[in-house]
Write a structure and sequence with these properties.
five-stranded antiparallel sheet; binds zinc ion; 43% helix; alpha+beta; elongated
């Protein structure tokens, strides 16, 4: 989803394109000087990049948190030494495992989908049980 300042920025770009004028990406003042300039001042340039970094960081941190929690839950279930374990899906649900967040997947020769979470994989059976596998 775009933040309001991003929507405003896009709108300004469209207006600027139609008027052949360039507007500062942050404060929307007309930019004077070199034709490749995108900001009216260094202050605006710095603030723009600061906000961009901050909004990216928030989303990335949240996703990392979910993935790390998922890995912890799988580790908790499989224990320290087991190569694999088959458990009921409700155990994962109770621990608030988020099935939508994975780091990758692969499909084996029998067309079974393995969901990867870092060094673990999990696979769901039609009876609702889940196989957790330690990779490598
Ligand atoms: Zn500006």
């Amino acid at each position: 989803m775009l933040a309001i300042w991003q929507v405003e920025y896009v709108t300004q770009i469209l207006i600027a394109m139609s008027q052949q004028k360039k507007y500062c990406r942050l404060c929307k003042k007309i930019v004077r000087g070199r034709s490749d300039k995108k900001f009216c001042s260094n202050a605006c340039k710095n603030e723009y990049h600061f906000r961009l970094r901050k909004s990216t960081q928030g989303v990335v941190t949240e996703t990392d948190k979910i993935l790390h929690r998922n890995r912890s839950i799988l580790l908790e279930c499989i224990g320290k030494n087991k190569k694999q374990i088959r458990i009921s899906r409700t155990i994962l649900d109770k621990k608030k495992f988020n099935h939508s967040y994975i780091t990758g997947y692969y499909i084996n020769s029998k067309e079974k989908v393995y969901h990867l979470i870092y060094d673990f994989a999990w696979m769901e059976f039609s009876d609702g049980s889940i196989l957790i596998i330690r990779r490598g």
